[in-house]
Amino acid sequence: MAVEPVLDPPEVQRIIGGSAASLGNFPWQARLDGPLLCGGTLVHPSYVVTAAHCFFYNGQDYTNPGHWTIRLGEIYPNSQENTEQAINAASVTVHSGYNQWATPDYDIAVIRLRHAASINNYVSPLSLPTYDAPDGTNCVVSGFGDTTGNGNLASRLMYVYVPVMNRNTCNYYMNGAITSRMFCAGYDSGGRDSCQGDSGGPLACQLGGTWTLSGVVSWGNGCALAGNPGIYTRVTQFRSWLSQNTGYAI
């Protein structure tokens, strides 16, 4: 029986206040086409990084790769573009530390594609960071998710710039829930954020002149609310895990 798509769970529903992307702006952007609405990031021609919570909903486990097609090189999710590549998933590996019943810690997963993506101006991997983006760094988050906070999914790829927030400030806002494997980005006043359907997608920061996958859209309280920044998986903490689970020093 076919599984009907659903939004990710309310506590992790995570672009509001952003702009429409053009083809080639974010060649690393992936869209996960399957039971849940999520994004991802191409980090190698054969691998996409996303959030662990994208594979669980109400106790259901969707880690079977047969559920998923990965779409690359697109900006319109409801139409076929000649730049688009649709590749089935060959395997899904979720971090063993992730617990679907708790606040999303270790919220990272990697998808192996059934065949390597063709790299061009519209489909290209994003580098992994060797160090964390400093506080105040203006980074960009992109996705096909909710643009209003009311369940209105974007009709095209959207993006918004948000600054990395000081860890102590964020932990104050989030009542101490921020672990060493998370970080925050957003404005104290809200207004710009990732939202439903953006989960698993990239927060890209330019470090030393190179765009890097600094964060993975993970969770938050609502979308773009004052005092409620977006919470992202801290990719620097998972470089060795990603290398072990891809076989590449990506």
Automatic annotation (TrEMBL):
Xref: SUPFAM superfamilies: Trypsin-like serine proteases
GO cellular component terms, A-Z: extracellular region
Protein location: Secreted
Single GO BP term: proteolysis
Keyword Disulfide bond: yes
GO molecular function, one term: serine-type endopeptidase activity
UniProt keyword annotations, A-Z: Disulfide bond, Hydrolase, Protease, Secreted, Serine protease
InterPro entries assigned to the protein according to its UniProt record, in alphabetical order: Peptidase_S1_PA (IPR009003), Peptidase_S1_PA_chymotrypsin (IPR043504), Peptidase_S1A (IPR001314), Serine_Proteases_S1 (IPR050127), Trypsin_dom (IPR001254), TRYPSIN_HIS (IPR018114), TRYPSIN_SER (IPR033116)
Domain Peptidase S1, chain residue ranges per copy: 15-247
CDD domains attached to this UniProt entry: Tryp_SPc
The protein's name in its UniProt record: Peptidase S1 domain-containing protein
Originating organism: Branchiostoma floridae
